[in-house]
Design goal:
Blueprint: H1 2-21, H2 23-38, H3 45-70, H4 78-95, E1 97-99, E2 104-106, H5 110-134, H6 139-158, E3 163-164, H7 179-182, E4 184-185, E5 188-189, H8 190-208, H9 210-220, H10 222-227, H11 232-258, E6 260-261, H12 269-279, H13 291-311, H14 315-349
Length: about 350
């Protein structure tokens, strides 16, 4: 009888674990059902494509954030890097690079502008990693400081003004920037293809390469990873550089879609990135997370945001709701960890 009771208890725990692991996907289905009834035109083709484009932005930020969190860190600067990247690209297109000492202005082609902007994003990420690893500054403090620095430089770039109509000039050879945000391949926006490519590449790195294993090891137990020969500082540098790269790419996509660059673009988007990662099962204590989970988490955030906008929910209430979502996700994650430990202990004791 006791064996039967134990078996039944194991089944209940297993079912509970399964539901917890699938919680984000279940939440996504529920949101789709709710908004399909409450939000007008939610299931229309145009609305779904718009949602997918927004999801791509949150997913790209979330992918970089996932790597950082798995390694045991946090990156609060990604939203500011989004705005900074957009202003750099917009400034190069509209004003070029002024070399006052020579009395000339250089205008770069769009591919060169994209490469330069992405490199600057990587550089900002490298600065985060350098401060954290070389000076032992807590990631929260280091990236909080760089958040203000990047936003400040974005504002300085145009004295707080917007770079409008960043379409370029055929005579200067810098046209075509808007294709990044408005172009399509096989009917899908380019931003979605970028999300898919980056998602698959990052998932492969995490699961199939030594770098991925090292990222998990550093987040799981940094001291043990260091004693086993893993170059912990190098791993941390790399994840912050990837996070900066992803944020810069988002900045390029947004400014391309709007055909304008504003210094406040990306404000508070770091919260969306964190929410996507946490909702996808990435543990805030490090060592646990998947790219697939983050992509689903990004869909939840995107559907939640756009669904509330279609319903006319106040922007202030949207912030409140997203805040609750993040807190609940962390609580559920902790509950899952406790349940996993309990289940493992029960299995061990037979």
């Amino acid at each position: 009888m006791s064996e039967l009771a134990t078996s039944e208890k194991d089944k209940n725990l297993s079912l509970g674990m399964l539901l917890l692991k699938a919680r984000t996907f279940i939440a996504l289905i529920i949101l789709f059902i709710v908004f399909s009834f409450l939000a007008p035109n939610f299931l229309s083709t145009n609305s779904l494509i718009l949602i997918a484009k927004h999801v791509a932005l949150y997913a790209l930020l979330g992918i970089g954030m996932t790597l950082v969190i798995i390694s045991g860190g946090i990156d609060l600067s990604v939203g500011s890097i989004v705005g900074f990247a957009g202003m750099i690209a917009g400034g190069f297109i509209n004003q070029g690079l002024r070399l006052s000492m020579f009395g000339v202005t250089i205008y770069f082609s769009v591919p060169v502008i994209i490469v330069i902007t992405l490199i600057l994003g990587v550089l900002l990420g490298a600065i985060n990693g350098f401060v954290i690893t070389r000076f032992n500054v807590a990631p929260f403090i280091a990236t909080l400081g760089s958040m203000y620095v990047a936003r400040g430089f974005a504002l300085i770039r145009s004295n707080g003004e917007t770079f409008a109509n960043i379409t370029g000039n055929p005579k200067l050879g810098n046209i075509g920037f808007e294709i990044l945000g408005a172009g399509r391949i096989l009917g899908l926006p380019i931003s979605i293809w970028i999300m898919i490519i980056v998602g698959f590449a990052t998932a492969y790195i995490l699961k199939k390469t030594p770098l991925g294993w090292h990222i998990f090891a550093v987040g799981g137990n940094e001291k043990a990873a260091e004693y086993s020969g893993i170059r912990v500082k190098k791993v941390k540098m790399i994840v912050y550089m990837i996070s900066g790269l992803c944020a810069a790419m988002v900045g390029l996509i947004v400014s391309s879609e709007l055909v304008a660059a504003h210094p406040q673009t990306g404000n508070t988007w770091e919260m969306n990135a964190i929410a996507a990662a946490v909702l996808g099962g990435t543990s805030m204590v490090g060592g646990i997370g998947t790219i697939g989970g983050t992509l689903i988490g990004a869909f939840v955030i995107g559907v939640l945001n756009d669904g509330m906008v279609m319903m006319g929910v106040s922007e202030f209430w949207q912030m409140v709701i997203k805040g609750f979502v993040i807190v609940i996700a962390v609580i559920v994650d902790q509950f899952q960890r406790n349940l996993q430990n309990k289940f493992a202990l029960q299995r061990k004791n037979g």
